[in-house]
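Researcher: Predict the fold of Glycosyl transferase.
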Amino acid sequence: MRILQLILAPRLSGAEMLVKGIAIDHQQSGHTVCIASLLPAHGDFALAARELAAHRVTCVFPSRRYEKLGRLLFLYRAIRRFKPDVIFAHATIPALYVRALPVRVPIVWVMHSGVNDFLENNLLQRAERLLSLRAKAVIGVSQKNVDEYLKAIGRHPALVVVPNGVDAARFRKALNDERIAAGDEQEGTSAPAPSKRVVQVGRYIAEKGQLQTVRAFKRMLDFEPDACLLLCGVIEDRAYHDAVSALADELGIASRVEIRGPQGNVDEILGTSSVFAMPSRFEAHSIGFLEALASGIPIVANAIPSFNFARGWPGVQLIDTSDTERYGRALAAALGEPRTERPLEGMTLEDTAERYLAIARQVIG
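Model: Structure tokens for Glycosyl transferase follow.
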């Protein structure tokens, strides 16, 4: 099978990393895979691009930023050149572009967004209603996606939920390393001192709540003065990113807060941190949350519906993170908790990749 995965822009963000993992899995399973984009690759994607090349996954990214007609032409040529049997279009804009083209290839739209893209954008809503049936299937990464689509657009004959997946083996390495270290301690050998680092991984946008994490971390320092905070992710909103830095300065804790851009070694970062913070106001089915669950790291996250499946799991606190006092105390309490293994059945990268293949076979017929 020849599979084309279409994204908006190659970058170090959750959906794009999921696509990378699925593409490699499908290529290793004997299929021929191409990842194409509408926008040029971000500089931070270079390492991922090399990994894709090493696994013989074709990448077709524009070298410059095109306007609307230019994007359509670039995409049309990429499809004509690759000759896919099926196209998976990830996120709203790529899905609209590919369905506007005169191609007969079966198209599957994957909804990743944690927000309803059609709620306040009448133009997008009208375009989706017009092009809805050009998709042979529509995938929501959560039931929330599906419910919002039904409410805004209406029924579709093939509307299904396929949860995102995580490379569990890669992220569980930190959990295994901690178990080895604990065994060394019991045998009397020295083990590394535990970190007191809180980490939040996610795009710099208001909905991800980095400002609230900085405020809560300031409160946490009253209980754990040796703690430090690491924030990293794609800088999508430059003004918001700058506001996060300004707040750390204003609160007098800039020396304890490290603010970075996107990182390609999230597994290592989770493995060398002690607490994962996720105060997002909304998510669909967060890759970052899954990665943290797989790593075994103690988690403090906002009590939103998307995280409810992990309520009651060991080392997971779901609270109202808008309450700065409570959020800060929860972070401090989490520092004393060990890593722990959590069930991820149905949410591994292999699970998701296999579901995609099953849907591809169905739409190809």
